[in-house]
Amino acid sequence: MLVIEGSIPNEKINGEGYWSSFGNDEATGEPLTLNWWLDRLAPKAWGVVAVGTCATYGGIHAMAGNPTGCMGLADYLGWDFRSAGGLPIVNIPGCPVQPENFMETLTWLLYQAAGLAPTIPLDEALRPQWIFGKTVHEGCDRAGYYEQGDFAKDYNSPKCQVKIGCWGPVVNCNVPKRGWMAGIGGCPNVGGICIGCTMPGFPDKFMPFMDAPPGGGISSALTGMYGPMIRKLRGITNKTMNKETKWRHNRPQLTTGYKPRWGN
Amino acid sequence: MPNINLGPQEVTPDMPAHTPGIQQGNAKGSYEKMQGHNPDGTSTSRRSTGVNPKAQEPIDPSMPNLSPG
Amino acid sequence: MAVRERIKPEAGKLVDMAWDPITRIVGNLGIYTKIDFDNREVVSCKSTSSLFRGYSVFMKGKDPRDAHFITSRICGICGDNHAVCSCYAQQMAYGVKPPPLGEWIVNLGEAAEYIFDHIIFQDNLVFVDFCEQMVKETNPSLWSKAESTDAPHAEIHGYRTIGDIMRSYNPFTGETYKEALLMSRIGREMICLMEGRHVHPSTIYPGGVGTVATPTLLTDYLSRLLRCLDFIKKAVAMNDDVFDFFYEALPGYEEVGRRRILLGCWGAFNNPLYCNYKYTDMDNWGNEMFVTPGVVVDGELVTTNLVDINLGIRIMLGSSYYEDWVNEETFVPTDPLGNPVDKRHPWNQTTIPKPQKRELEGGNYSWVMSPRWYDKRTGDNLALDTGGGALARLWATALAGKVDTPFVKATGQSVLINLPKTPNTAEQTLEWRIPQWSNAIERDRARIYFVAYSAAMAMHFVDQAFNEIRAGRTKVFEDFDVPDEAIGCGFHEAVRGVLSHHLVIRDGKIANYHPYPPTPWNGSPTDSYGTPGPYEDAVMGQPIFEENDQDNFRGIDIMRAVRSFDPCLPCGVHMYLGKGKTLRQVHSPMFGEHG
Ligand code: SF4
User: Fold this and answer.
1) Could you tell me if B30 lies within 8 Å of chain A, comparing CB atoms?
2) What whole-number distance in Å separates Cα of residue A167 and Cα of residue A176?
């Protein structure tokens, strides 16, 4: 099993130099590039796993204006690459990867390698389906505010952050649901805008991170219209629900409706 | 960049920069526009809820106003 | 330079040894040494980094508000230090000061980062160097002595002999090793409470934080902190016992990793009562930080003024794969106080990579540049090191004698740390005293004392944050607008030492951005004046105490020297023993731990 972390620089563009290396060539004493190792190791591995958004899709180092020509593993080996075990590359994106997502995926692969689990289900971006198959927004505990059209205008607010940079409605990730470790922390659920760090389009398509995402305007404008009415209606019901039932009292007679026997 | 092979640019380095006119999450004046956030840095229950906020206020003026996170 | 003269190429039996480990952090660091086995001494050392990613190149033209999100990704262990430092620089550029509660939350997150990271490093890499298995293998006679030496602090940590402590350090099986892993996990949970995520925070912004401050947040943090304190009290005592034993049992061991006392600390934990992020007031609020910034040369505190520290920074080439920038644009000719800013200062640096072959002999061999600090008293460009972070922080803070809180007090010669009573242990007052040397043992010792320092400071920050919250002051973020033209600088301490971010904004976009983390300082190659970097001169000339002969050599003394700096190299170690003989050593810290 070959596990790759970090983006893959383009070593075709830099002449005799190198961007990233790992050990030395015994004959020349010059460094051996990461690419040299990949070319040799990837085809022999039973499974190839890319961990983190750098390794999966290129990530931060692949942003516009970068000098190294960085890319993801699938860009380097080819999206139709198959390992010796017949598997596509398994991508576990996240910048950084949520540690439990990583361990869990690796465990599946180890079970699979031992013949104890079926082929790991991957989506078209080669991510484990059960982890990345829904959006941040769908798992966000601030979505109730969104629905009621109640939005944060700056970072002081515990409400929905869609107008101050949250991309949760269109990003595939489970972090607000799972937390960052042992259920603690996360992103929009604890006050950090979702910057789309698990996505192939990260980072350029989400920058500048602290600007309102363009698409959020329309849907949040709609909830902004009916939200206040919903809040009002819920306010009425909430008031009722905050009152105890009337037969709880310390008067000398029982009014709970108690009868010794059911019927008659 | 002398010894890096450059091809035609597919993007300019400042493509992801700010576009004038787009609302910024840090823009001055946003704090004042938020219901439930007081000018002195304290807040009311409206900070955290849109459903019956009044009923969630602390009942005594000696109590700090600590709406949930 | 004096240190270079120690190279004796003609000496008897020279053996090339190289450690070229891999890591995704700051660089793939490789240490290439030549050892004279007849004289049991290291005669030459080169530190190389074989990784370039180009942050200062691709950040140009981007929105400056993205800088902390981007620079956090520089490091897979201390990314939050970068994010925070970048916010400091941005806050200066935007002229915004976060509300006090926002500042306390950042301090709480950073204190947890020091606790977590120092513990995991001490545990996974340093303890392993001093554990039973290692010592048995490299110095059998020392091991038998350890087994028969009583541990002076047995009543605190519960281990009767030094040998018992070393046994508890054994990887995967030792008690201390396992407990430290758990503590570092708790430390990361504390970071996640304050900063959302570890290692790239989600809730840290220029202007403050998005963390929603409630009593619940602080309670969750405090309960974890108290658990860590139980462990820390024992750990300090154990470390002292083992390190003192080494000095006693191996006379001359103070020479391992020893170099001239040239320490830099850029200060940590801003005090919101004083810090307004204005450059013109930086001397004032820098001196109010809860870890005092300072440059210590030969035991003397040269300055604690962040303006002096800032203006003294020089980035040298000499052995690195870059074009020089002497003919490029000067972005900041003078600072806001009117002082001239040097062409070799990060504000005026233009990074143009020039990939090329590696030439270890007389050519360029590293992607790391050589940061130096200009000492205006002598005109020297000093190769400051960070002492692995903790040593420089404690040293500068102790000498400055400014920090004075209920939990931590600097005295001028030492730092007093009061640890309160916790569930399983009594109250304890620790004193870290300024040591005689800047060497491997003292770097390692300082690390665990700084864990205690951070934990004690965190107690103070919890109190302060509670005061704000209980008064109902819940504001954690201050709004700001981005100016068209501005400059900023941020000074902070990454876990393993000095961290600075320098930012120039034009047309509302980043025109120049240069982060300088600790490893370029410590791991820098020889500069254009011929001054070697700190790893290089610390290892050069150091004696070898290992009992093994050339064929069974493990290089433990060299590893202890290099590791004492806390280089970001947690993964694998390759050793080439000359003549085609290869030895491979792998230390594998759990991936999840560094997530
Ligand atoms: S904060 Fe983001 S993810 Fe959460 S509800 Fe709002 S838009 Fe959705």
Assistant:
1) yes
2) 13
